[in-house]
Amino acid sequence: MLIKKQKLEGTYVVLEPLEECHIEPLKDAVLDGEAWKLWFANVPSTEEMAGYVSHAIAEMEHGNIAYAVRSKSTGNVVGTTRYYHVDHANRRAMVGYTWYADSAKRTPINTECKLLLLSNLFEQSQAIAVEFRTHFFNHASRNAIERLGAKLDGILRNHQIMKDGSYRDTVVYSIIASEWPAAKSNLLSKLAP
């Protein structure tokens, strides 16, 4: 399985492979809502953004493709998302590191981002499974993942140590290739006018 580093474009968003030129627009995006203050989320602050982007770019050498999310209606970068822990031999990947400016929430942006990412993964890269992980207490993220049609695989208890020293219980979800047609229909219906 090979995930190509390419732009993905839909009706509402353009996913642009992450570059250094996205640092300043991402700083502006993260200020809209101050998501880095959420104790259960791993969202970079403006001071951390350059390192966050540089690390994501370095990871692309290993097939972990990160994207800046650009709203087509405004032209603004409104967040970021990525493929990570790409397992070429077993044809699976994780989708995550997703965060958006508050102005992008409750819009078609996340739905279309996931449609583009999952279509690319299952239809172009022939993946057999995609995994999503989030903090047990990140109910907004859990609800969004469940709305995609992902199934709960389980909870990894005391899985990570957070910046504040607390332990993260990680909730794991997945969509497998045989579930993709129904999940795709679900996403398309959510985007229908």
What would you say this structure looks like, in words?
It contains 5 helices and 8 strands; from the N terminus they run E-E-H-H-E-E-E-H-E-H-E-E-H. The protein has a single domain (8-191), classed as Aminopeptidase (3-Layer(aba) Sandwich). Helix 3 (109-124) packs antiparallel against helix 5. It has 193 residues and is an alpha+beta fold. It is 30% helix and 32% strand. The protein has helices at residues 23-31, 49-59, 109-124, 139-147, 180-191, and strands at 8-9, 13-17, 66-71, 77-87, 92-100, 129-135, 151-161, 167-176. The N and C termini lie far apart (34 Å). An 8-stranded mixed sheet has the order 1-2-3-4-5-6-8-7, with helices on both faces.
Entry summary:
The chain has one domain (8-191): Gcn5-related N-acetyltransferase (GNAT) (Aminopeptidase). Helices cover 30% and strands 32% of the residues. It is of the alpha+beta class.
